[in-house]
Amino acid sequence: MGKYRSFLILALLFACWSCKKDAKPASEGISVEHVFVASITNNQIDISYNLSSFGYEATGVIYYKKGNPSSTQRVPAVRTKEGLKLSLQDLSANTEYAIKVYFKVNGTEIPDSKEYNIKTLSEEAARFAFHISSPSISYDDQGNFNLEIEGENLQNINLSQLEFTVMLNKTQLQYPVHISGTRYRIVIQGTFSVENVNYPVQATYQGKEVFWQSVPFVYNGDRYWMNLQLTSLRGYPPSVFQNELYYFYGEQVVKWNDPEQRMSVIEPIPPGNIDPYLALPTAFEFNGKLFFPPIARGYAPNPANISDYYNYPQGCAYEPATSKWAIFAFKEYHYPNTSRTILNSEYFTHKGELYLTFSIMNNGIVSPGSPSKIDDYLYHYNKTTERFDKLPGLGTPILNYHFISINNQLYLLGLKPVYDQGYKLSATFAIFKITDQFTLEPFYQAGTDVSPERFNVRYVCDYNQKILLAVAADDYKIFDLTEKKLYQVYVKNSFSSISISGLFNYNNKHHIFADQKVYEISINKGR
Q1: What is this structure's pTM?
Q2: Which residues make Cβ contacts (< 8 Å) with residue 71, sequence separation at least 6?
Q3: Three-class SS of residue 1?
Q4: Does one domain contain both 266 and 400?
Q5: Is the dihedral of CA 492, 493, 498, 502 positive or negative?
Q6: Do residues 386 and 517 share a domain?
Q7: Which residues pair with 454 in a beta bridge?
Q8: Which domain of life is it from (predicted)?
Q9: Minimal CA–CA distance to 191: which of 211, 222, 166?
Q10: pLDDT band per the 50, 70, 90 thresholds, residue 140
């Protein structure tokens, strides 16, 4: 039953951390939010919560012993600066209670649709009376923490049968230190992946649950923080050329007029170059042109047989000064229309030269254990012929890869396959140095082959000679090339985005395009 209660409480904690949009609507525009269990003893449960609106007359909790609704009782909540709080007291030990938040509107009591089931601790909890008096617990960048807990009657007990856990993770217990009378202090130590949130600290003695209290964990050190500032730029993915913003959509080339804060149509897009209705394309600036990465283009070699239809990768370039377009068709890689998919299609520059990379994969899910065949291609742009020349492949299969050049050193990052007895079972994030001969030299690996650390990087950029990685709308990392360390980047201000569509540099500032909005970003290390 102890584990059963733990998972119930964890569900409550996750409800506490969720956003307002996850709260269940109740009535009259009022919803119950952030229901949170602060502590549990053998005869008391402390709860806090919030309501989304002040349009209520009274609020509190309805509770009863599970399976006995006739014993229903009500406890009103008290409003504090942190929210609504209350305590359910004089409860029976080792007993499960059904709990619902209620509020009154126009004299009508409205219970929330969500019911929480919480079980009190055993009678043994009163014997020890454990308590954490510290308002928060500090942890370092490795997740190490020390936690002081005071309790009664700890002399002459079998310490091997006393176990403390934090978020169900086991900890190490030091010998109790006498304070006064029957009061003792115990220090527990632990290490696990911690965030700046509340975690439940629990204890069992001889298999009986004797302690449950939630406590905030606070990072004790500097972190990377990202600040986002919403800009007035239009909600379309831009292409940056000579520090001006171009957009390619609706079969037109459009330019942003920054002084006048408006769009200006430059010219139409000739047919056969890009398909702005397939996706809103963005381009890469090099040598007076904007280069668009290859996408699938189709052709039918036999017009009399429409089933004989193929796709091939095709990129193009636009020269703003002359309004000329160039097409780069890679028809040698043609494939049946629905059999393969183009991946990792992107440009990068290194030592003043432009390179193109793309992959073609058999249709299927990209995963380390997938049998899907993936062919990787690498090209160099010849500025004299204005064509792309093929280079030898890297020879090492890297999934979801990106190239980036910093201080004249080229890096490749992505998922390196992990093998066990010759079988490709998983993958872990890795960074390689690329030599002038385009061979790979291992530089950094996250996790291990036994315990890999896997995540797919969506976008990368050079941020003050560090590699900024955009993994998801709420997941950013930065790699320090000097320290050879990967750090999590925490978003400091509110950011409601659910998808990201690119990083770019404009007016010497970094920007992110997300959910049809453009944000200026800045990253600092501090507290």
Answers
A1: 0.67
A2: 64, 65
A3: coil
A4: yes
A5: negative
A6: yes
A7: none
A8: Bacteria
A9: 166
A10: confident
